[in-house]
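Service request form, structural biology core

Requester: graduate student, group of Dr. S.
Request type: structure prediction, single chain
Budget code: on file
Notes: please return the result as structure tokens.

Sequence provided:
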Amino acid sequence: MTNDNGELADDQRRHWQDTYSAHPGMYGEEPSAPAAHAAQVFRAAGAQDVLELGAGHGRDALFLAREGFTVRATDFSATGLEQLNDAAHAQGVDQRITSVVHDVRDPLPMPDASVDAVFAHMLLCMALSTKEIHALVGEVRRVLRPGGVFVYTVRHTADEHYAAGTAHGDGIFEHGGFAVHFFSRDLVDALAEGWSLDEVHAFEEGELPRRLWRVTQSLPH
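Core staff response, request fulfilled:
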């Protein structure tokens, strides 16, 4: 990681910590539409153990636990995960959720072939370089069992915020304090090399609206 990327990563970590502190439960309690879809995909694949990357305050991790999955939730914001843990206890699903403070620029803190499925809603399109994104997907592949499924969502280059705000290079633009790596279709295809690319689904979310792809890819048995 270059010094500039390192400074941006530190700035974003502080920004998310401050945001979760100022706006507890900022995304609400209802699961995201991609999480609801992922639960169906994971169940059809026979998955039981799920890793969520970038879980934030936990609306999707909590939903997956309520759906009966065992969930390991990671995020680089300790504040967000504290909110997740409190909600898990209140909802009676704390026995099915483990939270770990972790920066996805580092190797995943899990052994090889230890989970059935991985979910990441708008985590891969954070302030990560293309090299860091490839390394992360390599780590996802490492921790998945044979036949494992990976569902992730990313904002892409047709989004209205693409090429707006502060440019940080490598497809990363900062708008309103949040830095986003906007994905091209070539990057999606490159990340699926060696996988089965099962679906690339375009959808919109939130105000503006944000334009995203929901990507489902799986490993051979």
